Amino acid sequence: MIIIMLGAQGTGKGTVAGLISEQMGWPQISTGDIFRKNISEKTALGIEASKYTEKGELVPDEITVPMVEDRLNWEDAQEGAILDGFPRTIEQAEKLDEMLKRNNKKVDLVINLVTPKEEIIDRMLTRRVCSNQECKATYNIKLHPPVKEGICDKCGAPLKQRADDSDPEAIKKRLEIYEEKTCPLVEYYKNKGVIRTEEVSVAVNRMGKDVAEDIVKEIKNK
Ligand code: ADP
Ligand code: ZN
After folding, report:
1. CA 135 – ligand 2 centroid, Å
2. CB 109 within 8 A of CB 194
3. Which entry of 67, 96, 156, 185 is 20 to 30 Å from 192 by CA?
4. Does the beta carbon of 31 lie inside 6 Å of ligand 1?
5. Is pLDDT above 90 for 118?
6. b or e along 80-96 (b: 16 or more beta carbons within 10 Å of the residue's beta carbon)?
7. Which long-range contacts does 72-75 make (Cβ < 8 Å, 24+ apart)?
8. Helix or strand (DSSP H, E) at 29
9. What is the pLDDT of residues 142-182, one digit of tens each?
10. 7 CB under 6 A from ligand 1?
């Protein structure tokens, strides 16, 4: 089963993807995480990608698409996978459809997370990630803080703020790109009849973990 996470920055895509991944035993494939890992390890791909990620711009498809295709071919992704951060444009969605088709697969479910704008920027500023590249757990110092301040519950490594989350210009740029390039994907997947929109917000008292729980229950009941 191929699941895609859609939604603006700060809606909790990573949280929902991580929980479904844990429960189903399918990998969470986060393009942002793969880029950050390569950047910290200073691989050729990382050095190239950082030119874009630093500014909050999209990394070109020539780099991103083969990277995703390769990851989807791993053994651990054959039963299911949750894509988090890809596709982000109509072109990427079309390329994904093509690569899945070659393997007799398709996009089965698109989880579209919606959060009021006022909450979004606040959430990006209060987001923290585990500095351990093998763990990458995400927290929010207001909404779901770690038990011990600044320390990851899962592995004990220090938490940090992502470079692009502390830069207001990069945040603005990412939200603009989301509106312009990624939003049209909602319509794209609506037409395919695979989208499921979920409001995640303090206002309606529904959080990422509630969404993940419901979805896992439904998948397991099928
Ligand atoms: P966010 O969604 O909060 O901006 P991500 O972790 O998903 O963060 O992505 C971080 C950065 O990695 C993006 O700003 C972009 O530069 C790059 N990136 C991630 N996914 C893609 C993608 N599918 N296509 C192009 N660039 C991407
Ligand atoms: Zn950790």
Report:
1. 4
2. yes
3. 67
4. yes
5. no
6. bbbbbbbbbbeebbebb
7. 72/29, 72/99, 72/100, 72/103, 74/27
8. strand 28-30
9. 988 999 999 999 999 999 999 889 888 888 899 999 999 99
10. no
Structural tokens at position 58: 């999209």
pLDDT at 122 over 90: no
Mark whether 71 is an active-site residue.
no
Of 36, 71, 136, 174, the active-site residue reads 174
Location of structure tokens 């809606």 = 11
Q: Tell me the whole-structure pTM to 2 decimals.
A: 0.90
Task: Provide the pairing of β-strand 2-7 with 81-84.
Answer: parallel
Residue 129, H or E segment: strand 127-130
Residues with CB under 5 A from ligand 2 (ion): 130, 132, 135, 137, 152, 154-155, 157
The residue-averaged pLDDT of 88-114 equals 97
196 counts as catalytic: no
Give yes or no: 127 in active site: yes
Q: Which tokens go with 190? A: 């609506």
Predicted confidence band of residue 213 (pLDDT cuts 50, 70, 90): very high
Q: Specify the pLDDT at position 180.
A: 95
- 68 CA: nearest ligand 1 atom: 23
